[in-house]
Write a structure and sequence with these properties.
The protein has no helices and 8 strands. Keywords: Signal. One of its GO terms (cellular component) is extracellular space.
């Protein structure tokens, strides 16, 4: 788990990390995030409500990971500014009807 604890942090890029899971609350201590980029990781799980606390999120890029399923509320957002979600080059085979 990568603890993010900055109220002024606006962008996070995780590239080629040995990251396998995004637990709920991963980004809750960084409420000003507007951009998250996760690329070329071994990410296989996004837990419920991981992104819900990010009310200023504009861009979410999750590319080239091992995610097989988008489960319940895994991509639930409370951001009115969200304009881009890119899930390209993933192994997504199943999307739960309540994922978003």
């Amino acid at each position: 788990v990568i603890p993010l604890t900055s109220e002024t942090l606006t962008s996070v890029t995780l590239y080629m990390y040995e990251l396998s899971k995004l637990p709920a609350g991963t980004f809750s201590a960084a409420p000003a995030l507007t951009r998250i980029s996760i690329q070329n990781t071994k990410l296989s799980t996004i837990e419920t409500s991981t992104f819900e606390s990010l009310t200023s999120l504009v861009t979410l890029l999750i590319e080239d990971t091992n995610i097989p399923t988008l489960g319940d509320k895994s991509l639930a957002f409370n951001s009115t500014t969200l304009s881009e979600v890119n899930l390209s080059s993933n192994k997504i085979a199943t999307i739960d009807p309540t994922a978003f």
